[in-house]
User: What shape does this take?
Amino acid sequence: MSSLVRPETPFVSAAEDRIAAATQLQLTWWRFRKHRLAVVSGIVVILFYLIVIFADFLAVTPPHATDAARSYIPPQAVHWFDQDGSFKPHVYALKGRRDLRTFKLHYAPDPTDRRYLVWFAEGYRYRLFGIFETKTHIVGLDRGVPEDALFLLGTDQLGRDVWSRLMLATRTSLTIGLVGVSLSLFLGIFLGGISGLYGGAIDTVIQRVIEILRSIPTIPLWMGLAAALPNSWSVTQVYIAITVIISLIGWTELARVVRGRFLALREEDFITAAELAGASRLRIIFRHMVPSFLSHIIAAVSLALPAMIISETTLSFLGLGLRPPAISWGVLLQDAQNLQAIAMAPWLLLVAVPVVIVILAFNFLGDGLRDAADPYG
Amino acid sequence: MATKSPILAALALGLTIAIGTASGALAQASLEQSGLVGRPEGITIITDQAQWPKSFNEAPQLAELVKQGKLPPVKDRLPQDLMVIKPVKEIGKYGGTWRRGFTGPGDNENGNRINASDRPMLVDHTGAVVNPSLAKSWKMSDDGKTFTLNLRRGLRWSDGTPMSADDFVFWFEDIYSNKDILPVGIADMTPDGKPGKIVKVDDHTVNFVFDVPFYLFETLMSGDTLIGGGQAVRQSNKGSFGAYAPAHYLKKFLPKYTPGGVDAANTAAKAEGFDNWVSRLHFKKDWTLNTEVPVLGPFRTVQPINNAVWVMERNPFYWAVDTAGNQLPYLDRVTMTLAENLEVLNLRAMAGDFDLQERHIDLGKLPVLLENQQRGKYKVHLDLALNGTDAIYHFNQTYDADPEIAKWLRSTDFRRALSLAIDRKQLNETFWLGVAVPGSTAPGEVLPYFPGPGWREKWSTFDQKQANELLDKIGLTKKDEQGFRVRTDNGQRLRLQIQAVQAFLPWPKISEMVADQWAKVGIQADVRDTERSLAMTRTQNNEHQIMVWNNGGTELLYLFPRHAIPVDPTEAYMGPEHAKWYNSGGRLGKKPEDPNILKILELFTAASGQKAEDRIKTAQEIWKILIDQQYSIGTVGQSPALMGVRLVSERLGNIPSRNCIAQHCRTPGGAHPETWFYKN
Amino acid sequence: MLTYILQRLGLALVTIWAISVISFVIIQLPPGDFVDAYIANLSASGSVVSQQQAQSLRQLYGLDQPVWVQYWKWISRVVQGDFGPSMEWGRPVTEVIGDRLWLTVVVSISAILLTWGIALPIGIYSAVRQYSVADYAFTLVGFIGLAVPNFLLALVIMYFGFVLFDLNIGGLFSAEYQLAPWSWGKALDLMRHLPLPAMILALAGTAQLIRIMRANLLDELRRPYVATARARGLPEWRVIVKYPVRAALNPFASTIGYLLPFVVSGSIVVSLVLSLPTVGPLLLRALIAQDMFLAGTIVLLLGVLTVVGTFISDLILMWIDPRIRAGIHG
Assistant: This one.
């Protein structure tokens, strides 16, 4: 901005000055901040990704530890205050019996057998951040192993702790979502950009391919591809393959948005100005075009993530996506998808709660980002 | 849900059982106390002609048709050699529609079994005694080379045409021997590789003639086999097996009886919308699809199976009466409604939408089913099966993709160790609600084939210490940092693959628990939850390491051996290549190197020429080898998991308190649905 | 403009052909074929299936020939209107689908009507009474409908409906009416069964629609002409309904085309859970059983519907937006 002349206009306040001088990014941020719901959602999302990073730390029992004696235990009550009134959270150990008339399992807490909660206790071994080997978990018991007495969200049919599995499921599902979206993003920007920038025959071909891909019903596509995966692949490899499969569909929407933006921007005055000023193609794209639609892309991405999560959940439900022994939201929800679970172990349905929260959070976040990115759109 | 004063409730009922500490025997005894398991009971067949009824009655609808002249009178419809049945409880009343659920055109067994009496012989409610059914008597010659069936005189097809020995000869000469329909013969008719034949003695006597002694044939005829199964099951779903067929109806669809031969037959077939005369024949002989084909069972199809509702109606020429002379069946109709998924089917059962349903009912839902008895107006019965294991772990003896894994799969001590590492009581409690019997793959103790005391427990108890010792002994001593044993070839973790299908039992989940138990002795197993047909394809291609299934049918080893020994390439999880070798007479597949497997196959082959007592001893020997070698690890069995959870409407009468659950019992056919009736 | 239409038509045909190839390939992808699936099924129910039976079945269905031969045979028949037999159901594909297709249409259209019927008024109300308690409340409820996986909801609602209210379970007809020919009674029975599936299906779409309607209407209400109308003294409701609402509905017009494929495929998973006799579960069964002709035909059908839908949407858009007609923006 020129420093030669300062116009003496009494109507320009300091705030407006700041606005006039702010970069695109700062403007976006300020508009975003005004959307309180979106900000809260952003915080929620960050919290969830913290869970992703600290999943093993937050889990308390080994996720595959089975025991018939712990089958279908309902969530346990945590008693926060001890008999003498002091703050010493504890739980009662449980004894289980099966009633032979009704064949139902009954668990009775034993008030004489108290297990006190210990923070940062020792549990199963894992690698923090994938590097540091440690045994510390957020909570444990003073006596005995957590898997025998601590049931924050109850257990499933095989006696596995739901809370711990939920933590690990969150990691898997959110990571798939992220990886899937990144892949879609890359393909979308790349192909959509080429389409919009160069136009003509390339544009037509890419558009047709997009249309064909969008016309294929996704479920048969998933089924065919999922069934074609070789038997010898490990769970991790299958997981990556599923992610790739999901994102192969998702990129089309992003590509359309990008293409639309490129087309619109091509005609803008400031681009023409840059071209006239002699800027190279590459510089035009990255210095001028990309920043102006970056926020759109971010908004589109945060709206695409919930779709990815629902895809994974649905695929796993149909038995096509991740399967046990992998742990994801979809896999956990499948455990709940039967009459005996709904009737006798409804706490298994609690897995739906984080799914709902995350999807809502991403939706509000995406809305907020989109509104902030383009106040005129 | 477990919240309201559970201790008090438990104490009050006094019928609870502490989890994890119950032994198999205690669990079974307690099962008796639950009041859900009845006593085996069934019909009685009256063979003494002096006690037969002299006058007969029929259903009102049929009486009406007789009056209109559309049906001959009931006395003429019944055979001279009557089947007189004393129902299990009382004489019934005519009327009513039996409502049932089915899962689609592939579920034809649902209806086949109801018509199970359309075969020459049918076992009784204990599964041990063979009763006459279509045939009134039979005899195996002393040299074992001729089996004679005596048919009922006066027996008629459902369209009134008399049935005779000609129908058996027709099947043999025009269907079985026609290479266009059946390219290869069946083992049931080919002892020692020498094909047998069917010969007519007179209108009501048929001989099955063989070149070598084939005493086993009598047992084969009485089971659910390719030769003895009966028209309903053996000629539906594109099967063309025996041992008889409606000659008068099917002849016109064969080129042999069509002027113009094959070409004319093909033209006629194409005109009706079929590709060729063979595919037309497959349709025409299928009682579930073709409403016109004559049948011999109590019910015939009036609306085919490939609709949303499959409807069957009474066969007016059914050849059995009760002791009061009432022509059976009592029920007018059977309607089966389609349920797209099992949850909905079970929910409908709970709502009381079905009158008697044992098929597709999930044992895991037992508590909910019990809860809804009043609302659905039904009673739950638990019927226990006779087979040793509902979840059997077959170790593929011909696996060769990974030499190190192949070595261990073939190591007897390795298998024994893994068997000892399984905590069967845990599995029983979690998946069978504690009602099954833990142990080896041996058939139920009540059967003569049971190898003897000690063989239920052999290598099939929970002994981690011995498991670890065995694994150490065979050289898997080194472990990685997480405690898993490593391979001897490259020092990496030893990983086994368990292929599990989600079918009638939750095998993937069961395998997860098994894998967790194996992890405790340092063996890592990866469970592959595979889709069914994919799994079958892979097993046939010898790609699997360990496959989970159940061994139903093996309780009568000679009738359905495929889940015990590798003899049938269609399904031979314990060694597809061995099965190919056996079945092709040595031309295909691989010859077993393990002398024990060779011995088993030798014993099995020899059995067909042995008389009953010797055959039973042979079977016991085979089981002893199988259990001692643990090619297939048994977990828990003799349970109600498969067709053993029976929901019966309060309105139905003559329902036995306990059904026989076994392949040859043709559940629920063995309980004679033609004697069931509605009390109101 | 005619050239534009012809061009789009030509491209649409090419797309449909590409879809047919891809559909066929996808269905053939899993190892094994229908006979394998069929044998697996029979074995599972304890039936005895021999190798000979399997081989003759393969010959019968032409499954022993290379994939491209099978494709060519199939597509040449399809073009003539012969969609082949369903191997599982033993009836022509057209019959099997036909039975279910119009039921699918009924269910989906009910869902769509329900969605629009609920979402539009709420969307309008939310826009008009922006930031009110009701606005937030509706938005929240709508979002929960969007976020909860609807198949989960289906089973839970079905069970509790049964336990608490004795509601009919799954399917579209009660036992008595399933067999009966069409009559008023049967039609009424169908209508009594529709609300549950329609509601579950509608839930997700409702939230989306509310948001879009609300956003569009808000944009319109900010326009100068609205202020003018108010200043001119028009009653409030007329101010809203006469122009803004109609303008806000414009963008929806172009999405009508997409309703076509949704009508058939949008409900697959929920239909499965609720055991509705619609095309969705049929497709899934066919895929699992590798019932080639049935699965291939349904997938082709869905693809064609999508292409036709897009085509219609483009036409409508072109008609509405004069800029496209003038060819300024491609």
